[in-house]
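During the no-cost extension, the postdoctoral fellow (Dr. R.K.) reprocessed legacy sequence entries with the updated structure-token encoder. One reprocessed record is reproduced below for audit purposes.
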Amino acid sequence: MDTLNRLRELLMPVLGITSIDEIKPDSALVKDLGAESIDFVEILYLIETEMGVKIKIQEIAMTEYSSDGSNLQNGKITGEIAEKLNRDFNTSRFCEGMTVKELFESFTVMDFATIIDKKRNSH
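Re-encoded structure tokens follow.
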């Protein structure tokens, strides 16, 4: 089974979703699926135990892109960081001026699968 579909299966009980069809690759975990911060603890645990991949919360909170503040201007990401995010996640939805909170809230199921695959391929 591919990473994306396995992840969708793992998300169902955590998010109280009864049909895998409700979890689309472009569904944002927070905005679309209603994930709360405590859900991410369980999701990360399941990914580690069921898929064998350890992910740190910082990797999905996008803090590696902005943790020291040098990539932020007035609390918002720079154009350079938006470009890097778009490249890393093969998308065009990140843009200059987004806040870290907006980044986290727009984090999708596919973004999660991308991180899992990158971590698997790096070993």
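The CA atoms of residues 38 and 50 lie 19 Å apart. The mean pLDDT is 88. The remaining legacy entries will be reprocessed before the final report is submitted.
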